[in-house]
Design a protein that fits this description.
The complex is a heterodimer of chains A (257) and B (271). Chain A has 257 residues and is of the alpha/beta class. Chain A is built from 9 helices and 10 strands. Classes of the chains: A alpha/beta (257), B mainly alpha (271).
């Protein structure tokens, strides 16, 4: 028997209703994701990438079709999934430590063991000295790291990164993407990144899923194999094949302004 | 990647800049003191020289004398106490009730949609017009004054705090939902703490409004308090008493406002 996939997305359709009419956001969308994979999702604006992420997080119920995580149907937010919003969304009135414990607090799982695990993450990723600082005292990159630790503290299997770096300036963004990728790899997590940035998608992912125009479905999937030393996103950008992938995906997106 | 620390050694230009800033602040402060002393001196001398009629303008020395008399009679503290107590009670109740109603509106889209036009009308209605009704319903005592102070501040609080609740970043709420948060947890962990600045802004407005409510209430019904002293003084043409009460009122209102500012500093230390 084949090992079953960590995430199975089966024939998802999503229809939104409003006073003006109805919008078909996703149609016949299917995808399987294996444990430890890093998946990037790119597509034209309004193609339903974020909708899919909301469905994976259990925040939205698809109109038809279903999502399985570890063979369990997703109906509501599950502890298996950690969500990283656009911009870090650290709570300004909480210290870094209190922010990191937020998810555990909500899930009523704060205990000696989980606190120790969270403290270890802070230490490993260089934020231990800022434990009692407020978010406003940290740089953009450190805030993003704190936000990632907040998500990791609930020990999810899968991380959903929703344009997670789009609030950062370009240079910081490159460095933070590098850091986040390394953390996700070293924590042995599965990740799904939604982005507008084709280079970011290629540089971080094992596979890039290209969405069709609305209604969104899978247009193509690129398995990224790059001949470069080191596997960090910054190094990967230097690979010779990088621009070929970029060209292919750019053509598939078929953007007209 | 840590934030760039500000250097502690500056160029001479920077010291000159700091000095100019300090000079400016000192100049403003000196001018304020000068203006105050000038006004008081003009008032006192003007009344002595009969440029002004102290019978209708009173005079600083008479105000001090009135103050001392009130102190000796022992009635000063009673009047100040009554008014301050009613005001604090009014604006505390106004803030608590207003925030509580705002929570209900946030909780139920249906209730907020139903109540919206009523709140708009209540907000534009001058609450002072309800004075006679309040007196009939609540009796002519402290209760009526308290209700007046409450009524005047509660609608503004509801609208202001509810607007604050609605402005909380949707992504923060979404983040909590992905953790599996209940509606109570969303309220307790993000809506209320994120709205502390809004609630404090409401407090600042409510201090002023509650003073209006209490003084108007005392004009209408009371037998004690600063509002009573002002009305009584006006009726018997003792402008000394009126002016003294107004000045005590100004000091008390300013002190209460400063107390809120201190509270704000403590509550928003994360800023």
């Amino acid at each position: 028997m084949l090992p079953s996939s960590l995430v199975k997305i089966q024939n998802i359709a999503m229809i939104f209703h409003s006073a003006e009419g109805e919008t078909v956001a996703l149609k016949d969308f299917s995808l399987e994701i294996q444990h430890g994979e890093f998946i990037s999702m790119v597509g034209p604006s309004g193609c339903g990438k974020s909708t899919l992420l909301n469905i994976l997080a259990g925040l939205l119920k698809p109109t038809s079709g279903s999502v399985f995580i570890k063979n369990q149907k997703v109906n509501a937010p599950t502890f298996q999934v950690g969500y990283m919003p656009q911009s870090d969304q650290l709570f300004e009135w909480r210290t870094i430590w209190q922010n990191v414990l937020l998810g555990l607090e909500v899930q009523k799982k704060v205990n000696a063991k989980t606190e120790e695990a969270a403290a270890r993450l802070l230490k490993r990723y260089g934020l231990v000295d800022f434990k009692n600082a407020y978010p406003s005292q940290l740089s953009g990159g450190m805030r993003q790291r704190a936000a990632l630790i907040r998500t990791l503290a609930i020990s999810p299997e899968i991380l959903l990164l929703d344009e997670a770096f789009s609030a950062l300036d370009y240079q910081t963004r490159l460095v933070v993407a590098d850091e986040v990728k390394q953390i996700i790899v070293s924590e042995n997590k599965t990740a799904i990144l939604v982005t507008h940035d084709i280079s970011e998608a290629i540089s971080m992912a094992d596979r890039v899923v290209v969405f069709s125009r609305r209604p969104g479905s899978v247009k193509n999937i690129h398995t990224i194999t790059l001949s470069c030393q080191g596997n960090t996103p910054l190094k990967r950008r230097e690979a010779v094949e990088f621009k070929d992938y970029f060209q292919k995906i750019w053509k598939e997106l078929d953007i007209h302004v | 990647m840590s934030k760039q620390t500000v250097s502690t050694i500056f160029s001479p230009d920077h010291y000159a800049y700091l000095k100019r800033q300090k000079n400016h602040r000192q100049k403003v402060f000196l001018m304020q003191i000068f203006l105050l002393i000038g006004l008081v001196a003009f008032w006192e001398i003007g009344a002595n020289q009969r440029w002004l009629d102290p019978f209708i303008t009173s005079q600083p020395s008479r105000i001090v004398r009135t103050l001392i008399n009130l102190h000796n009679e022992g009635s000063l503290y009673k009047h100040v106490g009554v008014t301050v107590f009613t005001t604090v009670a009014g604006f505390t109740l106004g803030t608590i009730c207003g925030t509580a109603v705002a929570v209900v509106l946030w909780w139920s889209k249906f209730i907020s949609a139903v109540l919206d036009p009523f709140l708009v009308v209540l907000n534009s209605l001058p609450k002072i017009a309800l004075g006679p009704i309040i007196i009939v319903w609540a009796g002519s005592g402290v209760t009526a004054i308290l209700v007046m102070a409450l009524l005047i501040s509660v609608v503004v609080t509801i609208l202001g705090v509810y607007a604050g609740f609605s402005q909380v970043d949707a992504d923060k709420i979404k983040l909590l939902k992905t953790f599996g948060a209940s509606k109570w947890q969303i309220l307790g962990k993000v809506i209320l703490p994120a709205s502390v600045p809004t609630i404090i802004a409401a407090l600042k407005i409510n201090v002023g409004l509650s003073w209006v409510g209490v003084i108007v209430g005392e004009f209408l019904v009371s037998r004690a308090g600063l509002g009573y002293l002002i009305v009584y003084g006006g009726q018997v043409f003792r402008l000394d008493l009126v002016m003294t009460s107004v000045i005590i009122l100004a000091v008390a209102a300013a002190l209460m406002y400063q107390a809120i500012v201190v509270l704000e500093k403590i509550a928003l230390k994360w800023r």
